[in-house]
Write a structure and sequence with these properties.
The protein is α/β, with parallel strands linked by helices. Helix content is 39%, strand content 20%. The strands form two sheets. Strands 2-1-3-6-7 form a five-stranded parallel beta sheet, with helices on both faces. Strands 4-5 form a two-stranded antiparallel ribbon. Strand 4 and strand 5 (119-122) form a beta hairpin. The longest helix has 18 residues, at 181-198. It is globular, with a radius of gyration of 17 Å. The protein binds flavin mononucleotide.
Length: 199
């Protein structure tokens, strides 16, 4: 039985992105009924930015042992996952800041990565992630791809933690005048259902 952590980063519930990511999860569940899926809605959870006090706690080895500690609990939860589904809309050439705030909680030295003489090493090798996003404009073409700062960052930071099996599913152009938005969403949902078969 695999454990899947479904991380949602959007204050809107009626969301293009969640239409696709929820379809992915539904298809995944049908294919893998015994797997355990935990949903973490970052806005409902009220993820905060790391504060000065949190940074103090981060350096305290005794506090690090406490799986329920407010600073470490997300890293412990992340550690329990085998697979990650990250759903976030494209905001200002990246993803909503709450997802970065969450990443600051899961990158914890000696839990999800460690320092060695050769430099930092991720401790989550062998796990996989899919990033599901939707964008108002077109960021998938050769010319515009470099403008997207969200997908490359996620790929890099997950790689830093050892997660190199990283897939992206994006639906672009949803706010472009004249496009058939419903058809773009339907195509992305079909792709999500297909990807879920192999995830
Ligand atoms: C705060 C905010 C910032 C956005 N920034 C961009 C952007 O930089 N480029 C873009 O193409 N679309 C941008 N959009 C449009 C969204 O990416 C697009 O509408 C997306 O499908 C919204 O997904 P959702 O329905 O899941 O929230 C932005 C939307 C919002 C609300």
């Amino acid at each position: 039985m695999a454990k899947v952590l479904y991380i949602k980063a959007n204050p809107k519930q009626a969301s293009n992105t969640f239409l696709i990511s929820d379809s992915f999860i539904k298809a995944y569940k049908e294919k893998n009924p015994a797997d355990q899926i935990t949903t973490l809605d970052l806005y409902r959870e009220g993820i905060d930015f790391l504060r000065e006090r949190d940074l103090g706690d981060m350096g305290d080895p005794e506090k690090l042992e406490d799986r329920n500690h407010r600073v470490f609990k997300y890293a412990y939860q992340f550690l329990e996952g085998d697979k990650y589904v990250i759903a976030a809309p494209f905001w200002n050439l990246s993803f909503p800041a709450i997802l970065k705030a969450y990443i600051d909680y899961i990158c914890i030295s000696s839990l999800t990565f460690k320092y060695t003489e050769e430099g930092p090493v991720g401790l989550l090798a062998g796990r996989k992630a899919i990033y599901i996003t939707t964008r108002g404009g077109n960021y998938s073409s050769e010319k515009t791809r470099a403008l997207d700062q969200g997908e490359p960052y996620l790929k890099t930071i997950l790689g830093f933690l050892g997660i190199t099996d990283f897939t992206v599913l994006s639906a672009d152009c949803l706010d472009v005048i004249g496009v058939d938005k419903d058809e773009i969403l339907r195509a992305a949902i079909r792709e999500a259902e297909n990807l879920a078969q192999k995830f």
